[in-house]
Design a protein that fits this description.
UDP-galactose 4-epimerase, domain 1; 9 strands; 2 domains; 284 residues; two-stranded parallel ribbon; 12 helices; 44% helix; Rossmann fold; alpha/beta
């Protein structure tokens, strides 16, 4: 069985390939897909084949998927064009005989208010209509998304956000990547939809406490209103579009859209997800 991984030079794709190798998948059965041949080249030392696959060049996608059995489609981070990009991959997979696609979606895509959801819903629908077997990994938020919040703790001894009442079941990229590797390399996941989040649901107070432990000094949680959060981000020099996006995410987070208590992720990977204190400790 040949497994091709999109985004092999990015965070999640690279971690997925690392997890496949850790699971003793034959490196000659793994194909690393990306746009930049120079960035793909290090995979040669691991025995992993590299192929050029550019979301915006459909012919490269068709060529890259030749002879591939399973595709791990790490969703594009090009928010403006990714509906078209995902369509290109799904269509090419159907035309080249790919048997299964593992797709990284977003937590509770069918009910969430998260601003990123429309593109994922389109991709999920296309997968269901494609005739190809699929596994949908509805990933919660990455703990790494909060590195900026941790940096505030480092510089100011505070963590400030409009997260009153919010609980966040984040997990490391590495945990989500391991789940992708598991479902791509083992049977029993056809047409499955998995809601994934970390075992620990944390509050802003919990984040402050974890940051305090990591830094060895007090860190205080500062709960902001939406307007205060926008002003706070603007003072940091955050672009207006990013502020708008971040503010919308905070609203959805307070509504519970990043909370998950199913523990499906830890069951898939066979061990607990990394705790917040562990992850923040690695950032020091």
């Amino acid at each position: 069985m040949t497994i091709a991984v999109f985004g092999a030079t990015g965070h999640l794709g690279a971690l997925t390939i690392r997890s496949l190798l850790a699971r003793e998948v034959d490196p000659h059965c793994i194909v690393a897909l990306g746009r930049n041949s120079a960035k793909l080249a290090p995979y040669a030392e691991l025995g992993v084949e590299q192929r050029i696959a550019d979301f915006d060049a459909p012919d490269t996608i068709t060529t890259a998927l030749a002879g591939v059995d399973t595709v791990v489609l790490v969703s594009s981070n090009d928010l403006e064009h990714r509906q078209r990009q995902h369509h290109t991959v799904i269509s090419a997979a159907a035309n080249t005989g790919v048997q299964r696609i593992v797709y990284t979606s977003v937590l509770r895509a069918d009910t969430t208010t998260l601003a990123v959801v429309p593109d994922h819903l389109v991709a999920e629908r296309e997968l269901r209509e494609s005739g190809i077997d699929y596994t949908i990994l509805r990933n919660g938020w990455y703990t790494e998304n909060y590195e900026g919040l941790f940096q505030e703790a480092v510089e100011k001894g505070t963590v400030s956000a409009a997260l009153t009442g919010a609980r966040i079941s984040s997990a490391r990229r590495a945990d989500y990547a391991e789940a992708a590797a598991v479902v791509a390399s083992t049977p029993g996941h056809d047409r499955a939809v998995y809601e994934l989040g970390g075992d620990q649901a944390w509050t802003l107070d919990d984040f402050a406490a974890a940051a305090s432990t990591a830094l060895g000094r007090p860190v205080a949680a500062q709960y902001l209103t939406d307007e205060e959060e926008r002003e706070h981000l603007a003072a940091l020099g955050t672009p207006a579009g990013v502020i708008q996006f971040a503010s919308a995410i905070s609203v959805s987070t307070r509504a519970g859209d990043l909370y998950d208590d199913t523990h499906t992720l830890s069951r898939l990977i066979g061990h607990p997800t990394a705790e917040l204190t562990e992850v923040l400790g690695q950032w020091v």
